[in-house]
Design a protein that fits this description.
3 domains; Butyryl-CoA Dehydrogenase, subunit A, domain 3; two-stranded antiparallel ribbon; alpha+beta; 13 helices; globular; Butyryl-CoA Dehydrogenase, subunit A, domain 2; Butyryl-Coa Dehydrogenase, subunit A, domain 1; single chain
Amino acid sequence: MDQDSYRMLRENVDEFCTRNVEPLALRIEREGMPRDLSAKSGAQGFNTATADPASGGSGLDRESYLLILERTARSSPSFAMYLMLQNSIACRILGASGKSDIIREIASGNKTTTVDILSLNESSSSPGNITISDGKVTGTIRTVILPSSDYLIFQHQDALYLAKGNDGIEILPALGFRGLGLGNVSLKERPVEKIAESGGAALIQETIRNSGREVAAMALGMTGRSIDMAIDYSRVRKTFGRPLKDYEPVAFQLSGFKAQEEHLRTMVFFSTARDEYIKPLATDLARRATKVALQVHGGYGYLEDFGVEKFYRDSMTLSIYFGPSKSDMRVLSREVYGEESGVI
């Protein structure tokens, strides 16, 4: 992507966020993401940014998609996570399964899709006490991100299934990405379709592994916005008659994080390094930077209205959901040692 295209897309995404996301940021955290926001996002082509245009997708290249994730994460990490779930996880699996009709529904914003959390965390076991018979599924799938989705992809006995409907939800307390929610989904003879005969867990795990740079883009957005907020606050907040920016520990630390942010931006958008190298750096930086940004704000930082505490919560949760996995670290270890390592 050339510089002019990069600038135009960035301006377009920023304008969308200013008009449609920023005014709803606090509401998203407290009440969840409104469905009309998904429809507006769909009209911009964000919901299925990288999907094949023949299936209703926008057909954007990866750099463009990464930019969308980074800029939306600055306004609402929950909204950025929603886009990532639809694009990087759901649409890739649905595309591999030939479910173009559902991709088109996601593109319009009329329907949403999620994937069960056990598969996200690389578990190959059954997601719960599941029974499937005559095209109906009964049982409970626990700890699902975006549990109110219209479609739920899960693996059972190595096959991959698509359940339809969004009833029977038990909402759970969530540390991060509160705009999406977290819950147990009780399936009572819900319509289900097998979309892969075998290799269901492997397909989900591979999809997650191939999304390392997307995770890094989200971490970059959270890092950048939280540090910018801390810098702005340090200009106006005074202690002992001097603004916080005049104190070395504050100014030097925030400036250092700003430099690291720009280095990470170069790695995310322009580096040829493997995703397994970039993701650990990005998630680690996001955790450290957002924590410092929260501390700079003092007690005010813990108030939802200030909007900085969510970046710390969400950066921690991002690492839990999509942070460096054992398979990622095995790849890194193999690269470092030039042979199998870390096997005990």
